[in-house]
Amino acid sequence: MTVRVFAAATLGQIPLVYDPATELTHMPGRNVPAGRVMLDDEEVAGWHTIAQRQVNTRIPFNLCWSPLVRCNLHCPQCLDDKTLSESGATERERIADVLATSDVLGHDISGGEPLLLQSLPQLLKVLSSHRAAVSCTTNGWHLERRAEELAPVLDAIRVSFDGPDAASHDHWRGTGSFKRAVAGVRAAVTHGVPVQLHTVLMQSTAHRAQSVADLAADLGAVGVTFLQMLPIGDGAGLAASELVEDADALRIVRSVQPPHGLRVRLRTRELAEGFTVIRADGQVYHNVRGATGIHAIRPLVTAADLHLPLPEGAGR
Ligand code: SF4
């Protein structure tokens, strides 16, 4: 049993519990008080999941904020738009304040590489000051160095792995990346931060899914999320050769035998459609139908700017 922080709220008259490690939102099987709550993750995992499209609300359950374009790595499958200009420190503080006052249940700070931000602990603290659960998605390079400082303000961390060993991971992320990411996960676990491994399923990496799950268990992670590759950013150039169809991805992930205590899930492209991202330029972006692209909608001025309709046909 692992007791950790979740976010609970009622949206569209449906009680919801958001898991900052898996990004999944559940319908609780009992009365859960609103706000940041400590829950047994085994109990939460047993509750049915629900998507925003199934609830009468325009408030996203969770979103990703990418305050940086900068990254210390150069992965060919990166989703980021490196041409965007980054907002400065004052604008980042303003955005954190706006997000904190929204009714969104979960905020994930991604990048670029979020651990390059010195002010990351302060931003996470602001984001969790209302009721949301907070996480980061990182390549793990700087995690060993910053785990102790981040542990008090992080509800979960997601660390990206493209393979279960140095040869397969570093092929995509560069020499030394695997060693640094492993050291980072170990440090986060040591400091009590729940860790979720993230692996993008590609044609040339999918056959290692079981080994990634085994690695996650060895490192003490709570779970693995396999993500369907999205043809966005640099990833668009790889899609023709590396994209795995949803049916194949489901088959691959279902074939993984989860080591004891580890949860394994697939984030399909369908689940990614309509997802809300605040990018480094301070604008609200939305994944289009099928998550085959991402569009800027409007600048984030108030929390109401997050209330977007889902793409037409989403959840068909
Ligand atoms: S995928 Fe992540 S680690 Fe790789 S270049 Fe993009 S932001 Fe950096």
From TrEMBL:
CDD domains from the UniProt entry: Radical_SAM
Keyword entries, A-Z: Iron, Iron-sulfur, Metal-binding, S-adenosyl-L-methionine
Domain of life, per lineage: Bacteria
Residue ranges of the TM segments: none
GO molecular function, one term: iron-sulfur cluster binding
Gene3D superfamilies reported for this sequence: Aldolase class I
SUPFAM superfamilies: Radical SAM enzymes
Ranges for domain Radical SAM core: 57-263
Pfam families (UniProt xref): Radical_SAM
Residues in coiled coil: none
PANTHER family: PQQA PEPTIDE CYCLASE, RADICAL SAM DOMAIN PROTEIN
Protein name stated in the entry: Radical SAM core domain-containing protein
Organism: Sinosporangium siamense
